[in-house]
Amino acid sequence: MMQQFRSNSYLFGGNAPYVEELYEAYLDNPGSVPDNWRSYFDALQNVPAVDGSDHRDVAHAPVVESFAQRAKANAFMIKTSSADLAVARKQVHVQSLIAAYRFLGSRWADLDPLKRQERAKIPELEPSFYDFTESDMDITFSATNTYFTKAEHMTLREIVQALRETYCGSIGAEYMHITDPTEKRWWQESLESTRSKPTFSAEKKKHILERLTAAEGLERFLHTKYVGQKRFSLEGGESFIASMDELIQRAGEKGVQEIVIGMAHRGRLNVLVNTLGKQPAELFSEFEHTAPENLPAGDVKYHQGFSSDVSTAGGPVHLSLSFNPSHLEIVNPVIEGSVKARMDRRGDAKGTQVLPVQVHGDAAFAGQGVVMETLALAQTRGYYTGGTVHIVINNQIGFTTSDPRDTRSTLYCSDVVKMIEAPVLHVNGDDPEAVVFATQLALDYRQQFSKDVVVDIVCFRKLGHNEQDTPSMTQPLMYKKIGQHPGTRKVYGDRLVGGGTLPPTGPDDMVKGYRAAMEAGKHTVDPVLTNFKSKYAVDWTPFLNKKWTDSADTALPLAEFRRLAERITTVPANFKPHPLVQKVIDDRAAMGRGEVNVDWGMGEHMAFASLVASGYPVRLSGEDCGRGTFTHRHSVLHDQNREKFDEGTYVPLQHVADNQAPYVVIDSILSEEAVLGFEYGYAGSDPNSLVIWEAQFGDFANGAQVVIDQFIASGEVKWGRANGLTLMLPHGYEGQGPEHSSARLERFMQLAADNNMQIVQPTSASQIFHVLRRQMVRMFRKPLVIMTPKSLLRNKDATSPLTEFTRGEFRTVIGEVDEAIDNSKVKRLIACSGKVYYDLVKKRAEKKATDVAIIRVEQLYPFPHKAFAAEAKKYPNLTEMVWCQDEPQNQGSWFFVQHYIHENMADGQKLGYAGRPASASPAVGYAHLHQEQQKALLDQAFAKLKGFVLTK
């Protein structure tokens, strides 16, 4: 009876979790399970692999059901073999214990260098939780599906010891939330086969100590040489430098050729010197307040970026540390965009050659929404970068609070990454070897599975938030512990001396050597390659230090216009667009032939087509940008007879020439901040591509204001970083309420200075065509902000004849076009921008006000003084100017353009305002009130000047 039980005891229903885990292993590799299990599963399936390989893709349900039936059939044995059943149950409990450590072991891991609190008791990790007693500890159980040993059996004591060493030592691993069984098994094998402990050579250990010495040495040198100056010290987190060193060297060995790094200010100076190889002397000059050249504003030293090339066993690796403001995590999407541009330049679709590395603080990682938005981009088609290695410098204190209840609502600061099933390795910063090992595992996982991964270095912050802060005022007990801590370098140095790796004077000799290098201002990274230049490097010099010009040759020859128009209005014979879309295509074909005027959507398309045909890639992203929020674009056509996206879509702009540049259009996730940051990063790494972010509605830019303020508007004056990103922001007062009326033009005008950006509001199809082409044809790169229309997209008055595309250029000011206006009789000049122009023209016709001229300012910044003055001089008897706008008086461009207009007025002329009164809201919410206001502002534009009037 006992022999019979042992032969089929695995079929009892109580073993279901154990059996299912075995079955997962069998599906992946039948040879990995014992013979009896393999025979059983083979008989159950009776289904060959689809591809002829050993891999099976069979549902678990039939196996579980069959297992339940067999359990019922064997029920009689339960009554007769209770002793043997107890053994089977214990085997199941062993599997449950193993699972508990894999799920919960990180919570009992030895992670805190300060050891401020006792490790919490977790009952599920105790054998007694499963009714095991001391007498059970030496019983042998199956160790199938673990990787602790090649043997199939271990005693319970050995299993518990292996589990604790693997999951509760200096590394606490979280990976069981991953749904892919292959990835989970990878982590189990990687951790359990090593017991989460590396085996490093003596030379490797010495190198780790050298990196810790460099990290601590720089901080102490700066602390004594520049007393009290802010540097946001890394002291307490020195293992991070060892982690970065390992990441770079191992990445190089695995074929990575570029690493793009984003991080905030904590430890940034240390990375600049000890990782990227910035000359210490150069850093010292910044501490001594030496102003950088050619930067109108500049930035503090701990926001600066840097790039270098270092040697690795796999060849040179280019390192780029992105410039970053104090908005901590806002650099995340910028880094990803930069990586994407580099991938595209290399043709590196999987991201095996370019690696994004994000360095976070614990509080910011948990607290800032752009982290989640950026993570959400990770596996999407338009923003995929092959997985990011995230490193958290977790000083357990955040900014000034030391209580986790005040810094987050989650157990770990890294819990947000579980939304994309990224694994996390929490590691004790006082165990540098564990930190380096965790970094190795993280990179290996990223390279193999092309997914995000996190290394959470639990450390501490020796000083305050900055070097002028006294942290013991708010964290007295924590800083008593920190005051007693000898430092990670000392702890590890003593460990190496005690183990015989170094002589007693070894650690101190390293300290003296590093101090001497600092005094001499020498490189601390060996070897930094000073003369290496990659063939993929971008030369920005043709775009820099150029004098501003509004002019560019953007006209397109008629024959080329017609050829491109034909290409973008041709679809495959077996492709059936929606009837409404087919009408758009047919209308565009007629426009291309010159039979009707060109509308806005066609003007856009012709700009894109002409650019990609000339070798300029175009990248357009945003919510609904393929179709266009207002269904004017139809850049991506959908076959009405096919559902599959890959088969059922056609993009005409990808078929305009045999050797054209790429045209990429992406309907983004519902994000503004991360997506705009991504596109800024992309444009900053590729000056030869037209990169556009289109907001679904212009006011959605509000959600990305930090990117606009900290990068787009000020990146050039702070860091000398040119960028040609284009923003399309639908803007127009159509009576649709406060939301979606205004793109907040006034905010962009307020940020405009130092020729830092271009702000335009085109009013015709030819104007959008020329301004988009101008953005690439001119040999300098500035952000371009376009206030795009809504109702004008289909307004016949905003269409343009074909001749305006084959001749001319973008007009910064469009003068009076009514030939019936006699210049000598004009007494009033109304200047405006945007849709209101067409309303003013109709109003003038109603009033028969032939003494009023109307001009459009299409470029609001840089203000076109020469063009505006030239228009004003056409009217010799001009006495009044009026600025008319749709927006409320405290919004729009009135407060900014009034000074520009005043400069171009003649003596005695007056300037007045016509528009809505000042308002706390962008627009009213009632249609009838909108119409009343619109009528009033149009009347005001032609009425006697009153209120605030400027006189020259």
TrEMBL record:
Keywords: Glycolysis, Oxidoreductase, Thiamine pyrophosphate. It comes from the Bacteria. Residues 598-795 form the Transketolase-like pyrimidine-binding domain. SMART domains: Transket_pyr. GO terms for molecular function: oxoglutarate dehydrogenase (succinyl-transferring) activity; thiamine pyrophosphate binding. It is an enzyme of class 1 (oxidoreductase). It catalyses: N(6)-[(R)-lipoyl]-L-lysyl-[protein] + 2-oxoglutarate + H(+) = N(6)-[(R)-S(8)-succinyldihydrolipoyl]-L-lysyl-[protein] + CO2. Its cofactor is thiamine diphosphate. One of its GO terms (biological process) is glycolytic process. Its EC number is 1.2.4.2. GO terms for cellular component: cytosol; oxoglutarate dehydrogenase complex. Homodimer. Part of the 2-oxoglutarate dehydrogenase (OGDH) complex composed of E1 (2-oxoglutarate dehydrogenase), E2 (dihydrolipoamide succinyltransferase) and E3 (dihydrolipoamide dehydrogenase); the complex contains multiple copies of the three enzymatic components (E1, E2 and E3). E1 component of the 2-oxoglutarate dehydrogenase (OGDH) complex which catalyzes the decarboxylation of 2-oxoglutarate, the first step in the conversion of 2-oxoglutarate to succinyl-CoA and CO(2). Belongs to the alpha-ketoglutarate dehydrogenase family. This is 2-oxoglutarate dehydrogenase E1 component. It comes from Aquabacterium commune.
